[in-house]
Amino acid sequence: MSDELKPDELLDKVDHTPSQGTWMTESVQIRPGMYCYAAKPESVETLGLPNARSWNPMEADWKLPENWQEIIHNGIKDRLEKFRTFKIFMDVCVRCGACADKCHFFLGTGDPKNMPVLRAELLRSVYRNDFTTAGKLLQKIPGGDKLGGGRPLTLDVLKEWWYYFFQCTECRRCSVFCPYGIDTAEITIMGRELLNLLGLNIDWIATPVSNCYQTGNHLGIQPHAFKDMLDFFTEDIEEITGVDVAPQFNKKGADILFITPSGDVFADPGTYTCQGYMILFKYLKDKYDLDVTWSTYASEGGNFGFFTSHETMKRLNAKMYAEAKRLGVKWILGGECGHMWRVINQYMDTMNGPADFLEEPVNPITGTKFENAKSTKMVHITEFTADLIKHGKLELDKSRNANRVMTFHDSCNPARGMGLLDEPRYIIENTCDNFYEMPINTIREQTFCCGSGAGLNAGENIELRMAGGLPRANAVKYVHDKFGVNTLGTICAIDRAALSTLMEYWVPDVEVYGIHELVGNALILPGEQEREMDLRMEPLPGKEEADE
Amino acid sequence: MNQKYMVPLAGVLLLFLLAYAGVEGAGMQWFFGIIVPYVAVIAFVGGFVRRVMGWAASAVPFRIPTTCGQQKSLPWIKQNCIDNPDKASGVFMRMVLEIFLFRSLFRNTKAAFNRNEKNKLTYSWEIFLWVGALAFHYSFLVVIIRHLRFFLEPVPSCLKFLEFFDGIVQLGLPGLFISGAVLLLAALFLLARRIFDAKVSYISLAADYFPLFLIIGIAASGIAMRYFTKVDIIGIKSFTMGLVTFHPVIPDGVGGLFYAHIFMVSALFAYFPVSKLMHMGGIFLSPTRNMANNNRAKRHVNPWNYAVDIHTYEQYEDHFREKMIDAGLPVDKKE
Amino acid sequence: MNFNQKLEQNKKQIIDQWFLHTINSYPQETARVLGKLKNRFDNPVGSATAHSLEESFNLLLQKEIDIDKIETALDSIIRIRAVQSFSASQAVGFVFELKKIIKTVLEGERDNDFDGKIDEMALAAFNRFMKCRENIFLLKATESKRRIHSAFERAGLVTELKEKELLDSDKS
């Protein structure tokens, strides 16, 4: 829909006959509000990635290297050999259409190229043209290209790749419905790797990656500032509970190294989740003498390298094991984060393991062996806390969360790249009395993405994010209207940031909470004063009068 | 008209006419009946093997199953052993359900069955994709197995058994085989969906229509021979037995329609390995389905894993040492 | 039978057509998906559109129209169109379609009073569209601020950053 068209003309233009199927020849229109700004050259340079320069997607010239087609061609060839997923997914799609209406971006934006099958076809069409026997033969016949569904790699095609591979959050919902398990996330990952060979990243990914590489976290918080932040939280918590929960940093010989996304340290409302972790660790220290340390070097759980290339992911992820080894801890505990856990669950051990310098994780308080983490040696904090609660090791006062009417958003990566579904629910049910599930086709493995994952949580593409988050928001609105739900729980740092904005637009009465914020509110610290406020410094239920 | 399906349709008609005219007009029985089938079978087997070997040659660097249920975690949390398997047995079950029942496609239909505001059950066309796909694939399978009777002497009793059930409605003479009719109808349905559903039409390519037209042509010519033109079964059996025993003979009194049928089947065989029809082999190798989600318990090895540059702790401390000391953070080297 | 009664009688047909026309402002492959009245959670745009149109039409049929109520009823459809890169005229244009549809369904008959009501509804739709767009700009501006925890600000660590981020978000 170009800007000049009036609605009447538009309606006249639309006919009801089946399409002539011209998607291959329509050239891409890059729209403001839907795309993210280009990566700054400084950020690309930090990691020594190719073709660092300043460029603008809205301009015709993208300042590509002269032999860019050759680079892409070789890049595809290389990846076809290295990844069976890629090769099979290029070959076996029958275009049955089962995935088409499963994508939140398609449902929200209405752009047909956001159908997962078509997103993959953008790349597949070039693959068929350049890498298959049929494609190579058909090229020689006039019009044969079209018959085989191939097309040559032109600048327009490349721009289309860039536009649409940065409109996919790698959430894998389509993959659940595909009869061959074709995973569009995998295709987007390959697409972005190829684009990165030409320096075509977006700034919202490239700059956090560069920061993370140098300072240890995405925002680029330097070690002293990182400590300052947690010191501020310590002050706030002392004001609320009367207990000093000061954390330990870079401590050699601690039992456990704790790593969480830096979003929890610097961005509201993740900060309250972070305070929840601090309260929990203080409680475990006082009651059971469990020694947990934070690290300023490995101060990022998230991994925007995952949205750049496998190699970049590995380079950023390496810090976790390196730091655990240096500090000599027994095992690693990971905070609430989505893609961080996809990386830990499906990539970390393979890329940077084996972690034979760590012990097989055992909860020293309950004696539970985390069998499912015995090789990677990293445990999810909701697995850890659920185990503590199950064994009655935590004193919880649910009434402090009595004003929270909860629902739970399964984050895509823990849901479809791990299967962490019941652990967080168990914690919610033990810290809060009011919990209502959203409709079944919008939770668990069928959960709808927040619309801002995989590095798309920028400001300039807010229309895309709001549209992509609509299916999720719509389900929240339903439980809000029906059960009076006022709190959306989640175990992902990007969710905490993105869903807050999403809720403000679609369902303004709903607040976003991390699961450990509920724990932080409910947990009774030894020697604490009678709490009047929750972690957000709002009066606790029943204490509203006293506040005034 | 849309060239995406007009060209494949014309192509299939051409194949048909070519064989029909070649036999009826030019008397090229030996070419369409002997040379083409042998070449097609060689192309099929060779191409299929080559394609699968090609996939197998690509590495599986990471274990990335799509998890569709609760993981194995704490002992008291119930794992979904099939949708999120951590053992080979679970993966086996998952693959069996996927391959024999098209389970993921069925998921699609579940979302389509819903109650509307007046609490009435509503549904949409998605259920028919699953039903249509099942009907198509199973009837095709039965038809293929049934055709084995032409290649085996004596005909094994299990085949007779199958034929008995396939012909159980006892309609017409010779008795109607349900599988043939279902195959034709299901293929027509899948074709209609591609043409009339705007969404599917938009994503369809010529390469999606061609095999459908071809299969429709094969089914239709087969049905025509059995029920209408009533070909000489004895002659055909001697011909097919000749092919499998490598003593090919051309029988008398078998017309062009039969050769057109054989030619289209040969075309399908030869086309198979270079097309999307290879999904038949691909599904077995799809890494998001055929792997267990036990990465954290059992290390997966990447055959091409290579060392990368990282920003080490030493570099980091060198960079920030003063600030760290000022903030009271522990450091490895004081100076 | 007066005009309103006729509308009442043909209500279903009018609303169905109105829905169809509105949905057809999307690319046709998309319209096929959105137009299916399926589960409201699988198809939020289609179901919100259908629901919103029906509710606003019912409000128009009342003797005295309450413009605030109409604006609220239009909210869910406009709120969606405000983020789908429609231009303002494309986003609210569906309201005017109603005039044409009624004329077709009632075979040429029209009514000045009712046309006036539709015009008022169009203005309400435009108001709502502007509110949603303002909402979007505000979110853009405030989000970057929320990304930095208030404690950072208290510590004076981010004053400079804050202004820069706000400017950045204006750029687009």
TrEMBL record, chain A:
Molecular function terms, GO-annotated: 4 iron, 4 sulfur cluster binding; metal ion binding; oxidoreductase activity
Superkingdom, taxonomy of origin: Bacteria
Signal peptide: none
Residue ranges of domain 4Fe-4S ferredoxin-type in the record: 84-113
Keywords for the protein's UniProt record, in alphabetical order: 4Fe-4S, Electron transport, Iron, Iron-sulfur, Metal-binding, Transport
Keyword Electron transport: yes
Parts of the chain that traverse the membrane: none
Entries under InterPro entries matching the protein: 4Fe4S_Fe-S-bd (IPR017896), 4Fe4S_Fe_S_CS (IPR017900), Cys_rich_dom (IPR004017), Helical_ferredxn (IPR009051)
PANTHER family per UniProt: FUMARATE REDUCTASE IRON-SULFUR SUBUNIT (PTHR43551), HETERODISULFIDE REDUCTASE (PTHR43551:SF1)
Listed name of the protein: Putative sulfite reductase-associated electron transfer protein DsrK
Source organism per UniProt: Desulfocicer vacuolatum DSM 3385
Automatic annotation (TrEMBL), chain B:
Superkingdom assignment: Bacteria
Ranges in a coiled coil: none
Main location: membrane
Pfam family, any one: Nitrate_red_gam
Entry keyword annotation includes Transmembrane helix: yes
Subcellular location: Cell membrane
Ranges annotated as spanning the membrane: 31-49, 127-148, 168-191, 203-229, 249-272
Domain NarG-like: 96-280
Gene Ontology cellular component list: plasma membrane
UniProt keyword terms in alphabetical order: Cell membrane, Membrane, Oxidoreductase, Transmembrane, Transmembrane helix
A Gene Ontology molecular function term of the record: oxidoreductase activity
Membrane topology classification: Multi-pass membrane protein
Official protein name in the record: Putative sulfite reductase-associated electron transfer protein DsrM
UniProtKB/TrEMBL annotation, chain C:
Domain RsbT co-antagonist protein RsbRD N-terminal intervals: 13-132
Pfam family membership, one: RsbRD_N
InterPro entries xrefs: RsbRD_N_dom
Name assigned to this protein: RsbT co-antagonist protein rsbRD N-terminal domain-containing protein
The species this protein was found in: Desulfocicer vacuolatum DSM 3385
